[in-house]
Design a protein that fits this description.
single chain, 103 residues, mainly alpha, 4 helices, 0% strand
Length: 103
């Protein structure tokens, strides 16, 4: 009987300890009546919202340049060149390791 009670008691204790530690991982959200903790945060809450919205809408409307989007063919070409480059240095390093005489 004692053999079955001990693992169950240990499991319950571990779960309780884990639940207690889980409460420490999160920070409570700020209350609305509290003053801002950071300098300049009151500006963001008043006039900065409109400026942020205007900047976000301008950034969303502006198209990205054509060079920003890489095609799959370009990624494959880069991968082939990178693989050959990596293989060369790997073989050179391995040859150096073997020529030193100590492994």
């Amino acid at each position: 009987m004692a053999r079955t009670v001990l693992p169950v008691a240990l499991a319950v204790t571990a779960l309780v300890a884990l639940a207690q530690l889980g409460g420490l991982a999160f920070v409570a959200p700020p209350s609305p009546e509290a003053s801002p903790a950071l300098r300049g945060q009151d500006l963001m809450t008043k006039a900065g919202v409109a400026a942020t919205g205007a900047y976000a809408s301008a950034a969303a409307v502006a198209p990205l340049p054509a060079e920003a989007a890489l095609s799959e063919k370009q990624w494959n070409s880069f991968g082939q060149v990178f693989a050959i480059f990596f293989l060369f240095f790997w073989v050179a390093g391995f040859a150096r390791l073997l020529t030193l005489g100590r492994l």
